[in-house]
C-alpha cells in the first residue's frame, strides 16, 4: 500500500498534516496551520520538494 498524507485538526484547533507510510507508521509531520487549506498546501509543498530531493549526510 502506498503512503498517504492525513490532514487533521489538533486539540488547539489548528490544522496539521502527517505523512504515513504504507504500514501506517508516521514518517513525517507538519507544523500547525490556521486553515485546512493551508495544511493541504503544506502537503503539496512536501510532495513537490521530495520528488527530486537528494539525501545528504551531515555531522550535526
In words, what does this structure look like?
It holds the Pfam family DUF1508. Residues 10-57 form the DUF1508 domain. This is DUF1508 domain-containing protein. InterPro entries: DUF1508 (IPR010879), UPF0339_domain (IPR051141), YegP-like_sf (IPR036913). The protein has 60 residues and is α+β, with helices and mostly antiparallel strands. It has a single domain (4-51), classed as Double Stranded RNA Binding Domain. It has one helix spanning 36-51, and strands at 4-9, 15-20, 26-29. A three-stranded antiparallel beta sheet has the order 1-2-3, with helices on one face. A hairpin with a 5-residue loop joins strand 1 (4-9) and strand 2. The longest helix is centred in the last third of the chain and has 16 residues, at 36-51.
Brief characterization of the structure:
The protein is of the alpha+beta class and 60 residues long.
Number of strands: 3
Number of helices: 1
The major beta sheet can be summarized as: 3 strands, antiparallel
Oligomer: single chain
Going across the biggest sheet, name each strand in turn: 1-2-3
What is the overall silhouette?
A: globular
| Helicity range | 25-40%
Radius of gyration: 13 Å
Secondary-structure element string: EEEH
CATH architecture heading: 2-Layer Sandwich
Label the structural class.
Answer: alpha+beta
